[in-house]
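Protein in question filed below.

…
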Amino acid sequence: MREGTVSILLGSSWGLFALIVYGLFVRSIRARRRDEQLLQQGESAEATVLQVQRTRKRINHSPVFAVRLEVRRSGHAPYEVGLEDRLDAWDIPVMEPGRRLKVKIHPNDAQRVLLVGEDTSQPSSVSPQGDPVKAMADLQRMANEGLIAAEEYEQKRAEILSRL
């Protein structure tokens, strides 16, 4: 009788584990579909990065950042929105305060914003990353502020030095 109870418990545990993994997979697929739909049907707008702060969260070994944006959409007053997103080391310079971005806004929920890319149509208050000396200074600042991990710092540092 004990062996039967143990095998039922083990079977139930594996079943519960499989159910949780399946649920996470379905949730991920739905989130991706929502983003694709927002990309196609959302209202185009511009945003300016106001603040970027590293959280304690990580997704697939990449840090998650809390980003505060000022969103400007045609015919409406500018407003602020906050979002959390995973950023790779090479995305962080794009997300520094003052940088202008292209975004898509959900038609029924203006707080749901999807980052599309950098806005290159208008000059930004942030200088371009083409200057290796400036890039190295920015990289050092990000490391000092804890925005990037030591291994990300070393990787980008080597990349910048190889351009000299």
